[in-house]
Write a structure and sequence with these properties.
Length: 270
């Protein structure tokens, strides 16, 4: 049962949507409600929680039923691909019938961690693209040190038919344009605020606002000046502020555009 709404936020202020947050992570076990309250007070009006294994998917589904402003994306993370089974994917398909499940993921490839072999990661990545196509839901992509293979597989599987999000994008402007051509949005997170993050800053400058989303990936990747601390969705305005600075635009314009983009992309109504 939903027991919480967004009436607490200041209706006259700029609002934000955190399009990728792990409120279902163990790091929030002690103070989840306070974290949510701080997000609302920072005018983060909606949050999309990502479930990427059995435990976090179950938690995400619970959150969407408890809070009217929380939505879910569910899938299987590439680092844990070796643990995924056909039964898991069938279960995800059944859960995705819930009206507040707005995407499949995060899926993709992660060549930084070596828990799951590349071929197994690729197998479940393709399977999840196919599931997203079957359900007509967008795909949320995790890519770490695997850009060439991620883009190739998205092409080979015709992922453009449903589109998706390049989550916490850290690649080149050129690759961002390739992804946009395949019906993908580019989501920027905390790293765009880091002093030496050349590529995310270039992307923020060069890619038109109509293709951008903002996220925290909390509890990870806290933006400057909180780098290294636990991240939370109340900090997503700092991402918008840095994009605004780089584009030489008012932050209100960035917030409005990225919020409208997220609502349109996920089919979220006010």
């Amino acid at each position: 049962m939903m027991h919480y709404n967004t009436d607490r936020r200041n209706k006259n202020m700029t609002t934000y949507i955190d399009t990728h947050v792990h409120l279902n992570a163990d790091q929030y076990d002690e103070d989840l409600q306070e974290v949510i309250d701080r997000a609302l007070e920072a005018n983060v009006e909606k949050m999309v929680v990502i479930g990427f294994d059995r435990k976090t998917i179950e938690r995400a589904m619970k959150l969407v039923d408890e809070y009217e402003f929380i939505y879910a994306v569910i899938g299987w993370h590439p680092v844990d691909a070796i643990d995924c089974t056909d039964e898991d994917l069938k279960w995800i398909e059944q859960l995705a019938a819930h009206p507040k499940v707005v995407g499949i993921g995060e899926t993709g490839l992660d060549y930084y961690w070596d828990k799951s072999p590349k071929d197994i990661q690729e197998y479940w990545f393709r399977k999840q693209i196919q599931l997203a196509q079957k359900l007509n839901l967008p795909i949320i992509i995790h890519n770490r040190d695997a850009t060439g293979d991620v883009v190739r597989i998205l092409r080979e599987e015709n992922a453009a038919s449903v589109g998706g999000i390049m989550h916490c994008y850290g690649g080149s402007v050129e690759t961002a344009r390739e992804c946009i051509a395949m019906n993908f949005m580019i989501s920027l997170g905390g790293p765009v605020t880091f002093k030496n993050a050349r590529q995310p800053k270039e992307v923020a400058k060069e890619i038109p606002l109509e293709y951008l989303l903002i996220e925290t990936d909390a509890p990870y990747l806290a933006p400057h000046p909180y780098r290294g601390k636990r991240n939370e969705p109340s900090l997503v305005p700092l991402v918008a502020q840095e994009i605004a600075r780089l584009k030489e635009l008012p932050v209100e314009e960035v917030a409005k555009a990225t919020t409208e983009n997220a609502k349109r992309f996920f089919g979220i109504c006010d």
